[in-house]
Design a protein that fits this description.
Layout: H1 15-20, E1 28-29, E2 32-33, E3 35-36, H2 47-60, H3 70-90, E4 98-101, H4 104-116, E5 125-129, H5 138-147, E6 150-154, H6 164-170, E7 175-181, H7 193-202, E8 207-210, H8 222-225, E9 229-233, E10 244-248, H9 250-255, E11 266-270, E12 273-276, H10 290-306, H11 308-327, E13 332-334, E14 344-349, H12 354-362, E15 366-367, E16 369-371, H13 376-381, E17 387-391, H14 398-415
Parallel strand pairs: 3-15, 5-6, 5-7, 7-8, 8-9
Antiparallel strand pairs: 1-2, 4-10, 9-10, 11-12, 13-14, 14-17, 16-17
């Protein structure tokens, strides 16, 4: 069954129709219609995703890959169908390049420990940027502690863009791996990843892209990007929690050691030794998140049915409008004004802590995020402990931006 029966016109995007697909948007919070502006933390789920998970549990749930009975066969077909959906979503060469993980955090840890660490000598270098999420910092620190490698950090400008010249200069003879965010979760910066990947590839350095904030907002083509690894999380792409995708070039995956051992990642086990299964099974030890993967497949089908180019165009205009409107509130200043922005707008209000702003907006039914957004080094770069962040998804409207601005003006008057 299609995730979107009678899909919306990808040119005009019938937002009322899209919003009707998300049951939670019909509720009220504190007596006000819910305005959900926290999709960068986790996006809401369309009915198609809810139905897909419910259908698995209520009609054909069983463990996958291991049974000859009907339910197991049906569950396996749906589970592997979701892998095919992810392959098409990323334009990977083969479904064998799609590994199901819990999310981007696990994906980066898998690559760090199974691909990068065995190839490092003391003094070798791993390159990231100053705008990374903690999940793209801490795994590399752990690898460096274990191997004696060195973590290098490309600087960013006051506007929140990567300093491309400095980034290129940091790619040197000891650089062994580059891991960079596609879209910043804290600033909304869309990095020029095509140029960044090309610079690394020219030096023979493999690259991983953290696509957690990119996959829900724009088309991603791993072949066009010429990237070695790409990761995204299901829950930010309108899918379930606890499921995500790691794309890896098959020649890399085939050379990687397993990250975890157990059932379903083996070909043969004896007390003398174990033969590992081919990728992707090699990296999917134990019973997987069966219903989560099926729900993720439905989410990716939903995004494709709406149309990723149409989503990108509309959201780009919506976020630009939000940045302009928020910056126009007296006493509010944006943190980061990158050349290209997607998904999120971060800001501060004079005399009001971001937590106070978030709590007071919640009283008006408006959900935003306040804090360091798992990007403490980025906060330090801008000299702030935290920001308020409004982030957007496929279901947000211009009227909700107006509600946000009205809410901020009300808070400003109270603090003034």
């Amino acid at each position: 069954m299609s995730a979107v029966e009678g899909a919306v016109d990808p040119v005009t995007l019938d937002i009322d129709r899209i919003r009707s697909d998300f049951p939670v948007l019909r509720r009220e919070v504190n007596g006000r219609p819910l305005v959900y502006l926290d999709s960068a933390a986790s996006a809401q789920k369309p009915q198609a995703v809810i139905d897909a998970e419910l259908g698995c549990y209520s009609r054909y749930y069983a463990n996958v890959h291991r049974g000859v009975h009907t339910l197991s066969q049906e569950a396996t077909t749906a589970f592997e169908g979701a892998r095919d959906q992810a392959k098409a979503f990323l334009n990977a060469h083969s479904e064998r390049e799609v590994v199901f993980v819990r999310g981007v955090t696990e994906a980066i840890n898998l690559v760090a420990h199974s691909f990068v660490a065995p190839r490092l000598d003391p003094g070798d270098e791993i390159l990231i940027t100053h705008m990374e999420h903690h999940s793209n910092i801490v795994p590399w620190q752990l690898v460096c502690e274990r191997t004696g490698a060195v973590l290098r950090v490309a600087p960013i400008t006051d506007q929140g863009d990567v300093d491309l010249d400095a980034y290129r200069a940091l790619i040197g003879p000891r650089t062994r791996f580059v891991s960079i965010v596609h879209v910043s979760n804290a600033l909304g910066t869309v990095n020029p990843v095509e140029e960044m990947v090309a610079a690394a590839r020219a030096a023979g350095v493999p690259v991983l892209l953290d696509g957690a904030q990119a996959a829900p907002h724009m088309a991603v083509d791993v072949r066009a990007l010429d990237v070695d690894f790409y990761a995204f999380s299901g829950h930010k792409a309108y899918g379930p929690t606890g499921i995500g995708v790691l794309y890896g070039r098959y020649n890399h995956l085939a050379q990687m050691i397993p990250y975890q051992g157990g059932g379903d990642m083996i070909r043969r086990v004896s007390f003398e030794g174990t033969d590992y299964a081919d990728p992707p099974a090699r990296f999917e030890a134990g019973t997987p998140n069966i219903a989560g993967a099926i729900g993720l497949g439905a989410a990716l089908e939903y995004i494709d049915a709406v149309g990723r180019e149409a989503i990108a165009a509309r959201e780009e205009a919506l976020v630009a409008r939000a940045a302009e409107a928020v910056a126009g509130v007296d006493g509010v200043r944006l943190i980061g004004e990158p050349q290209r922005r997607a998904g999120a707008v971060s800001f501060l209000m004079d005399d009001a802590h971001p937590n106070d702003v978030a709590m007071m907006l919640d009283e008006q039914g408006i959900a935003i995020r306040a804090g360091h957004h798992c990007a403490q080094p980025l906060m330090e770069r801008f000299g702030v402990p935290a920001t308020a962040r409004a982030s957007f998804g496929i279901y947000n409207t211009e009227a909700e931006i107006e509600a946000l601005v009205t809410g901020l003006e009300k808070i400003r008057r109270l603090f003034a």
